Amino acid sequence: MKFQPRCTECLLSRVAYEAALVLDDPDRIEGIRRTAAEVLSAGEGEGLAAPVLASRVHRCAYRLIGSDDPYLALKRQNNSDALAAATVIAPRLSSFHDNVMAAVLGNTFDYGVQAHQVTDDFLSFFFREFEKGLAIDDTDRILRLCRRVVYITDNCGEIVFDRLLILFLKAMGAEVTLAVRGAPILNDATLEDARALGLDLIVDHLTTTTRGEAELGINPLLLPDDLACTLDRCTLVIAKGMANYESLTDICDFPPVAHLMAVKCETIAEMTGVPRGSVVALLRE
């Protein structure tokens, strides 16, 4: 998906949000927002995928903020909150569909998205939405492809519920490669987060989506060799969240992809054909 003008305000509001996580200076935060807008404007004519341009803007913002990981405290709190919730949720998950649903609802741990609010009562939210089900439910078709899986994560907090789905996949005999972000960006999970949850001991291989760059989504120019080789032989990619969806819809000659995500904006709602606020398990073959 190419960057669209309607995405501008959401991106810049997220820049202001992450700056405010570190800084207590409204004038400086506004200055960072203005500089980010200039970087965005300069890149809009390049025809870049939305995650590529957004990553460029966030890297600039991080330099101006003076932090490599402004979401660090929030990420740790998200994982702690999700672990507590998972102790209640996990015993109630019995099927592949149940575990997919939990992983999708975990995708709501996403901060600074203009039209999306993270709930203060995740357990109540979870069970309410769990009963509603998926707006797009391709879980039966997805399950048939779960032999050699590349699982691309998104946010912290969410990764706790990814762990439950991965445990289910391993129990059914699937080979799982887990790919997290190569460096901190937004509240996305990194190697540190995956290892803290013991995921390195569960999956067959743990890797990153870049060679150390802070980049959203999947950028083919930045893939490490081990991930590229694994993608060549996998039977399914499970891709969490909207940034992975935005990038993978532009990539040809890719394995089947199961997009597990909450639809948090009108652009993605229009692309998927479901209302904003829906949750989906969408298979693209």
UniProtKB/TrEMBL annotation:
Residues 4-278 form the Damage-control phosphatase ARMT1-like metal-binding domain. It holds the Pfam family ARMT1-like_dom. It comes from the Archaea. This is DUF89 family protein. It comes from Methanofollis tationis. The lineage of its organism: Archaea, Methanobacteriati, Methanobacteriota, Stenosarchaea group, Methanomicrobia.
